[in-house]
Write a structure and sequence with these properties.
- By secondary structure, the chain is an alpha/beta fold.
- A three-stranded parallel beta sheet has the order 1-2-3, with helices on one face.
- Helix content is about 40%, strand content about 10%.
- α3 packs across α5.
- The relative contact order is 0.17.
- The longest helix is centred in the last third of the chain and has 14 residues.
Length: about 130
């Protein structure tokens, strides 16, 4: 797909997100909002229960990391080990207590996303 969107909330989707997508774009959406989304014909929609997963692992604040892990599994953009490594590098020292929960969320999302359902196509400039 030419463009992609990661939708976690239905607010502003009509005005801010969908009009900016090219036909055939990938949309990875939180399962709980899919029924509230506008007509997405012409796009590829993949639904992920990110909120449910975040609640199951005991940290609703990790919803975004769950969705990121799923997006990367779906596209193959980056592997989960690289995601976890990068997260560990950017978490500030005063938030080190969140590293384990963050890693759990990334890995749970990676497991939830249908692997390579919409792989990224890399184009090399001539």
């Amino acid at each position: 797909s030419d463009l992609a969107a990661l939708l976690m909330h239905d607010k502003f989707v009509d005005e801010a997100v969908i009009p900016k997508l090219r036909p055939g774009s990938l949309i990875v959406a939180e399962s709980s909002i899919v029924d509230m989304l506008p007509d997405l014909d012409g796009h590829r929609l993949i639904s992920v229960p990110g909120k449910t997963i975040a609640l199951e692992i005991g940290n609703i604040q990790s919803h975004g990391l769950v969705m990121l892990g799923a997006y990367c599994a779906i596209t193959g953009l980056v592997g989960v080990e690289s995601l976890v490594s990068a997260m560990k590098q950017v978490v500030p020292s005063y938030r080190r207590q969140h590293v384990e929960a963050n890693e759990k969320a990334l890995r749970a999302g990676d497991e939830a996303g249908p692997r390579l359902a919409a792989p990224v196509r890399w184009e090399v400039a001539a």
